[in-house]
């Protein structure tokens, strides 16, 4: 079971490019291996940042809704809140703090038993127990 990070969602939404082709190939591979696809509510929020900065926000929002209709949206739970606290504390203690959104995305994927699929694995590399796949 896979949880798609914002990077792969943006690449899927983008114009024809090598990144879009890589993202499509990764999604096809995941589906071909029988994995269900999801993303987190935090990734959805990050996509809406792009809508707010778009020259054509209606078109962007429509594209996002269309894309997200294919995925389960993982919600943040009390278990996730606890994992966020412990993970953030751990990262601070080892001197490798991560951005709050990255940690929120990571712990939500972990709590739901998902592997996180991202183009930027280095953003998540110090988070313990996170299953991570790049593309």
Radius of gyration: 15 Å
Which CATH first-tier class would you pick?
A: Alpha Beta
- How many helical stretches? 6
Average the pLDDT over all residues and give the rounded result.
96
CATH topology-level name: Rossmann fold
How widely separated are the two ends? 16 Å
Query: Could you tell me the number of beta strands?
Result: 5
Structural class, by secondary structure, is alpha/beta
- One letter per element, helices H and strands E, the order comes to EHHEHHEHHEE
Tell me the number of structural domains. Answer: 1
Strand content is 5-15%
Percentage of helical residues? Answer: 55-70%
User: What does the main sheet amount to?
Assistant: 5 strands, parallel
Question: Which blocks of ≥5 consecutive residues have pLDDT under 50?
Answer: none
Explain what you see.
- There is one protein chain.
- This protein is an alpha/beta fold and 135 residues long.
- It is built from six helices and five strands, in the order βααβααβααββ.
- It has one domain (2-134): 3-Layer(aba) Sandwich (Rossmann fold), CATH 3.40.50.
- α3 (41-53) runs antiparallel to α4 and α5 (78-93) crosses α6.
- It has helices at 6-13, 18-32, 41-53, 57-68, 78-93, 100-111; strands at 2-4, 37-40, 72-74, 115-118, 132-134.
- The longest helix has 16 residues, at 78-93.
- It has a five-stranded parallel β-sheet with strand order 3-2-1-4-5.
